[in-house]
Every structure is written in structure tokens, then in C-alpha cells.
Design a protein that fits this description.
Blueprint: H1 3-8, H2 10-13, H3 19-27, E1 30-34, H4 40-50, E2 54-58, H5 83-94, E3 99-103, H6 109-118, E4 121-124, H7 129-142, E5 146-152, E6 155-161, H8 171-174, H9 186-189, H10 193-212, E7 221-226, E8 231-236
Parallel strand pairs: 1-2, 1-4, 2-3, 4-5
Antiparallel strand pairs: 5-6, 6-7, 7-8
Helix pairs in contact: 4-5, 4-10, 6-7
Length: 249
């Protein structure tokens, strides 16, 4: 690290669990963020400000005025622009040293197979059940840790699915792809603005911990937030040995 980086990341370097070695790990790491909306905004901004060296942001959607209530990486000037590109600019304003690759395309199996293989950690910041399962299939195949978040109305949840651990479930173990799941969307149900910030911040923290090997991750644990009463509930998630996705891994 040069002198400017030593100054920029000095508060990280002061942490015994992180230090110069941990910060260097972050600088050399690659994170894949799928979804550049309410969850993807705080995730991208925190990973970028923390110095994760390369971020790939995938989102096919464009910024709409209704997004600005909660998607804090975007501004009025971003309306009509691809969300991934808007987030790239927001990260550059904070930390221009971070390399950001934007992919303004839908995250399908073919694209994810390529991008997940290149990443050290993957963050699911989407609101689409089919895409979540596609991400899970790719991370299971390539044995990459997945940090998954979700938020709707006043309720949020976050978990880590780590195929490197024989005890870890995958997303499909907990939420099987039955084909009969009814999507719940912000456009019809609403979402409390700070909720996505809370869940996205936890996702960013878990990703940084995974990259640096700090503490205990949320692997095998589903953390749920009741934002109305600000109550966290933790549920253990066992692996399903008969799971169609990870059962044979």
C-alpha cells in the first residue's frame, strides 16, 4: 500500500482482526454484486469505501424516480440511467482506486457461470426468486460463498451460504425452487426506506468478514429482522442432503 492508501484505510488497519494484512487482502479481492437497487446500493458503497479492489455490478434495470426513496447510491441525475452505471459513478466519487465493472444485463445462468467463477464472494441483492436460484446454482457449482439479503415492507433477512463448508446449506435447501412461489414486490407491497440499508449493510459486513476470515459468519444461520419493532430473530438452517442443487456436492 502507498501512503495515500495507508491514510485512507487507517481505521481498518487499527483493527487487530484486520490490520495491514487484512486490508491488503481486500485490495486484492473481487466481489460480484447482483442487483444495484435498495440492497445493492449500501453493499456497493461499503465494499467500495472499504477498498475491495474489484467490484462487478450486474443489473439490467434503469433508475426510476420511485427508486430514490431507498436506493441511496442513485440521484436525480441518475434517473433513466442504468443502475449499474449509476453505482459505478457513486463508488468512484468515494474511492476512485476501486475497479468497477458494470454489466447492464439480466443475470441468467450463462452470465452467472462466467462471473461467479471470477469472484471471491458473491452478494445476492436481487428481488427476483428465479434469479436468486440461478445465483445459488452458480455459487454452488463454483464453490463460492454467497451472501443473500432480502427486504420487503418492514421485514428483512440475511444469510450466508458457503459451499466450501460441508455443513452449510445452499439457498435451495432453505427455499426450494418449487415453481409455485409468488413474488412479493416493492411496487405493490412497499418497503420501509432504512430497511434495505440495514440489511445491505449486514451483507457488506458479512462479505468483508468472509474475505478476511474474521469472526463467525452467518453460514447456516438465517437472520431475520422485524423492522416495526426492531427485533432480530436467528434461525438455524441445516443442509438438506436430498437437495437437488447441493445434495450431490
Amino acid at each position: 500500500m502507498n501512503d495515500a492508501q495507508l491514510l485512507r484505510y487507517s481505521r481498518h488497519i487499527l483493527l487487530d482482526e484486520l490490520g495491514i494484512e487484512g486490508q491488503q487482502v481486500l485490495l486484492g479481492s473481487r466481489a460480484l454484486i447482483v442487483g444495484a437497487g435498495g440492497l445493492g446500493s449500501p453493499v456497493a458503497l461499503y465494499l467500495g469505501s472499504a477498498g475491495v479492489g474489484h467490484l462487478t455490478v450486474v443489473d439490467h434495470d434503469k433508475v426510476d424516480a420511485t427508486n430514490l426513496q431507498r436506493q441511496i447510491a442513485h440521484t436525480l441525475a441518475s434517473v433513466g440511467e442504468f443502475k449499474a452505471e449509476s453505482i459505478r459513478r457513486a463508488i468512484a466519487d468515494i474511492n476512485p482506486d476501486v475497479e468497477v465493472t458494470t454489466v447492464a444485463a439480466r443475470a441468467d445462468d450463462v452470465l452467472l457461470d462466467v462471473l461467479v467463477a471470477q469472484a471471491d464472494v458473491v452478494l445476492d441483492c436481487t428481488d427476483n426468486f428465479a434469479t436468486r436460484h440461478a445465483i445459488n446454482r452458480a455459487t454452488t457449482k463454483h464453490r463460492k460463498p454467497l451472501v443473500s439479503g432480502a427486504a420487503i415492507r418492514f421485514d428483512g433477512q440475511v444469510a450466508v451460504y458457503d459451499p466450501r463448508s460441508v455443513l452449510s446449506p445452499c439457498y435451495a435447501c432453505v427455499f426450494p425452487d418449487t415453481g409455485h412461489f409468488e413474488e412479493t414486490r416493492c411496487a405493490t407491497m412497499g418497503v420501509f426506506a432504512p430497511l434495505v440499508g440495514i440489511i445491505g449493510s449486514v451483507q457488506a459486513a458479512e462479505a468483508l468478514k468472509l474475505l478476511c476470515g474474521i469472526g463467525q459468519s452467518l453460514t447456516g444461520r438465517l437472520l431475520m429482522l422485524d423492522g416495526r419493532n426492531m427485533v432480530w430473530t436467528e434461525v438455524s438452517m441445516p443442509r438438506n442432503l436430498a437437495c437437488a442443487v447441493c445434495g450431490s456436492h
